[in-house]
TrEMBL record:
MF GO annotations: ATP binding; glutamine synthetase activity
Organism domain of life: Bacteria
UniProt protein name: Glutamine synthetase
Localization per record: Cytoplasm
Family stated for the protein in its record: Belongs to the glutamine synthetase family.
Chief localization: cytoplasm
EC number: 6.3.1.2
Keyword Phosphoprotein included in the entry's annotation: no
Length: 341
C-alpha cells in the first residue's frame, strides 16, 4: 500500500491581490489522475472567503501535475467553491468563457528575487544601488547576473512537473528575471502560471529568498515587472487581415478601464510611459512597439496578419485567470461583429 502527497493549491480572498494557499492531503493507492482527486474543504474564515460561523469552503481539483520536489507528490490546482458547490465570488477561473479552448495564451512572468536578510533585490548593496540598467538584461557573468542558481532549478522543476515552460531570461533591472508559459486554453494557461509561481515561491524558501511580484518594487530609474499576455484565437490565427487586427486592437480602447481594473494592483506605478510601458491613462497599439499598450508582433505581420497579439499592460502580480477572461470578452465582441458583417 503506497501513500501519495497531494498538495492542493488555491487562491484566497484578499483583494485586489489574491495570494496562493496550499495544504497537503495524504491519499492511499492514488492513481495520479485528476478524476481521482477528491473534493476537499478548508477554513474560509482564515482566508477572507467566509465567516467564522459558516466557514467551510470547498476545493474542486481542476488540474494535476507531478511534484518533482516531493516523493510520491502531486500538485493539485483547485477552484474555490461555496459549500453548496457553486463557484465562490473570488473564483476568477470559473468566470472564463473559453470552454472549447480556442484561445491560446503565452504569459511572460517577470519578478524580482529578494534576499530575506536585506529585503533588497539580489545584487543591490545595503544602503546603496548597483550600477544603472543596461548590462543586466540577458547578461552572463557574476558582475551583472544574480540568482541564476534558483532560476535554473525552478526551470527544471517546472519541466519535470510537465508544465509547458518555454524559457527564462534575466530582465532589465538588477535581480529581475522572467519565465514564459504557453498553453492552449485560457484556464490551462492560468493553471500553469499559478503552479509555476507556486514552485518558484516554495523553492525560494530553501535559498532564504522571497519572490517579489509587486510591479514596481524598486522606485526610480528601474524597470517594473509585468506579466505580458500574448494571446490568439482562430480569428487572429487565420484572418490574414490588417483591418481585422486593427479592429481587434481598437476594441480594447473603450474598455481600457475594465482591463486595467483586473491587470494588477499598483500597476499605475509601472505603467508610466517609461521603461518600455505605455501610460496607464492612454491606449495605443503598434507593430513591434514595446512602448504601446498592445504590440503587434513583427512575425504576425510577416505571416500576413496570421498570428497573435501581446497585451503589455498586465502587471506581474495580476491573476492570469482574470486577465485571460477579460481579454477573451473583448475579443469575442469583435468576433461577433466580424461574423455578422
Amino acid at each position: 500500500m503506497s501513500k501519495a502527497k497531494l498538495e492542493y493549491i488555491w487562491l484566497d480572498g484578499y483583494y485586489p491581490t489574491q495570494n496562493m494557499r496550499s495544504k497537503t492531503k495524504i491519499e492511499e493507492d492514488f492513481s495520479g489522475k485528476l478524476e481521482d482527486c477528491p473534493i476537499w474543504s478548508f477554513d474560509g474564515s482564515s482566508t477572507k472567503q467566509a465567516e467564522g460561523g459558516d466557514s467551510d469552503c470547498l476545493l474542486k481539483p481542476v488540474a494535476i501535475y507531478p511534484d518533482p520536489a516531493r516523493k510520491n507528490g502531486y500538485l493539485v490546482m483547485a477552484e474555490v467553491l461555496n459549500a453548496d458547490g457553486t463557484p465562490h465570488e473570488t473564483n476568477g477561473r470559473a468566470q472564463i468563457d473559453d470552454e472549447n479552448d480556442d484561445f491560446w495564451f503565452g504569459f511572460e512572468q517577470e519578478y524580482f528575487i529578494m534576499d530575506t536578510k536585506t529585503e533588497l533585490p539580489l545584487g543591490f548593496p545595503v544602503g546603496g544601488y548597483p550600477g544603472p540598467q543596461g548590462l543586466y538584461y540577458c547578461s552572463v557573468g557574476g558582475k551583472n547576473t544574480h540568482g541564476r542558481d534558483i532560476v535554473e532549478e525552478h526551470a527544471d522543476l517546472c519541466i519535470e512537473a510537465g508544465l509547458n515552460f518555454e524559457g527564462i531570461n534575466q530582465e532589465v533591472a538588477c535581480g529581475q528575471w522572467e519565465f514564459q508559459i504557453f498553453a492552449k486554453g485560457a484556464k490551462n494557461a492560468g493553471d500553469q502560471i499559478w503552479v509555476a509561481r507556486y514552485l518558484l515561491d516554495r523553492l525560494a524558501e530553501q535559498y532564504q529568498y522571497y519572490i517579489e511580484y509587486h510591479p514596481k518594487p524598486v522606485k526610480g530609474d528601474w524597470n517594473g515587472s509585468g506579466m505580458h499576455a500574448n494571446f490568439s484565437n482562430t480569428l487572429l490565427r487565420t484572418c490574414g487581415s490588417k483591418e481585422i487586427y486593427d479592429k481587434v486592437c481598437e476594441a480594447f480602447r473603450p474598455v481600457t478601464k475594465e482591463h486595467i481594473e483586473v491587470y494588477g494592483e499598483f500597476n499605475d506605478e509601472r505603467l508610466t510611459g517609461l521603461h518600455e510601458t505605455a501610460s496607464i491613462n492612454d491606449f495605443s497599439y503598434g507593430v513591434s512597439d514595446r512602448g504601446a499598450s498592445i504590440r503587434i508582433p513583427i512575425i504576425t505581420v510577416e505571416k500576413g496578419y496570421k498570428g497573435w497579439l501581446e497585451d503589455r499592460r498586465p502587471a506581474s502580480n495580476a491573476d492570469p485567470y482574470k486577465v485571460a477572461g477579460r481579454i477573451i470578452e473583448t475579443v469575442k465582441n469583435v468576433e461577433v461583429e466580424v461574423a455578422t458583417a
